[in-house]
Structure formats: C-alpha cells, structure tokens
Amino acid sequence: AIYYGVNPESIRRASDRLVNALTELTTKLAPTGWLVGDGASIAEAALIPFYVRLDGLRSLGFEGDMPRLVQDHAARCLALPGGKAVRWSDEQQSEFSGRFHKYRDLKNSAE
Questions:
Q1: Is the dihedral angle over the CA atoms 48, 100, 19, 65 positive or is it negative?
Q2: Which of 11, 55, 58, 88 has the highest Cβ tally under 10 A?
C-alpha cells in the first residue's frame, strides 16, 4: 500500500510488488507497444488513471524503475485525447500527494 503505507518497509514492499506487476505488463506491450492489437484500445483506458497518478506515487515512496516499454506506453497513453483530458496539473499532483502525507502524519503521531 504505497498510498496508505505508514511504515517505510511496507511502502518498499508495495513498491517492489508494483515493479513486478509493471514488469509483467511488458509481456503484453512487447509485440506492438499497445495492450491489445496495433493501436490504442479500451484496454489503455484502464491504465491511464495509474499513469496520471505516477508522480504522486513517486512522492509517496514508489522508488522502482518502470520498464522502458511501460514508460513509452505511459507517454503514448497520456498523449491520447483521453490522456490529455485527465492529466493532472502540478497543483493537482501536489494536492493528491498532500492528502496521503497528511494521513501518514496523523497515523504516525497516533502511534
């Protein structure tokens, strides 16, 4: 739980699991660079919310390296009209991260 993790070890484990999942994703991306077929499909819509939140996840402790195929896929998805429409501003990213940092501060101060 990168979002709700309050202890560095649990955040690190969640980060490692995410890297493993992204590495597995490369098997789907390798043939064409897209999840299904030769171009963007509804399958990409499932990942766009993750790609939008990626910078926020990094500020919350995700330290893993994204495989190059996933990085390229993220860039293509965020360049699509739907990706552009939901892309967050720096202010939105900061608000997203700030909420979870505040949550962590509250949980850690209660312990």
A1: positive
A2: 11
